[in-house]
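Changelog note: in this version the structure field was regenerated for every chain. One regenerated record is shown below for reference.
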Amino acid sequence: MQLYKNKVVLITGAASGIGKTVALTYAQQGANLVIWDRDDEGLADTQKQIQQTGSTALSLKIDLTNPDEIVTGIKTAAEKFGRVDILINNAGLGKSASVYDLSVDDWDYVINTNLRGTFLCSREAARIMKMNNGGFIINIASTRALMSEPDTEAYAASKGGILALTHALAISLGPDHIMVNAISPGWIQTGDYSNLSRTDHQQHPAGRVGKTDDIARACLYLTNPENDFITGTNLVIDGGMTRKMIYAE
């Protein structure tokens, strides 16, 4: 059964990694896809693979730091398909630098891409969803919103902001029947899974490093039409790592 047949799913950062897998997963479920990224070549490959499933894909090169491009991109999607049912705010980036050296420009670039971009995509997609009896928004945050490594202040702040934005949007958009949730992935291997060591896997309580499919299945769960009692939550998918106590030897 194709639960998402003819649904319109917009995914940012769909040229590779988690975004690409999520896009192909929805396509296999019969959805029509709107895929965004700055990587033309990667987008073209994702679009080709979506079309091979029999689904339709609208591919747009969008820079999330440009508000006008976001507004135009949502409008283009609505003109093409007449609706947007699901938005997956997946695109994001980081800048690793000492707290003493991180520039204002780099800080703004990360925040504007990850946090402001998520807000603007959600705001514009919600305008369309509201006219079509509601929809679902998933914001891809990170376990780095809950715990940190050194020199990741901009990334951590952006992902923490996404969690707060998620519950705020859930409250504001609830009356319009728009469910808003977040997913916080831990270590999700987007490259060659066979290159991981036994230690990489065993340090996770679940016994393995995450895969992009793990996030895609969570998206299907949170956007299932029957799960309209789930909103404002953050689903941590990290193999249990944020619950593991670690002591120095």
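Spot check on this record: The first strand starts at residue 8 and ends at 12. The CA atoms of residues 74 and 125 lie 6 Å apart.
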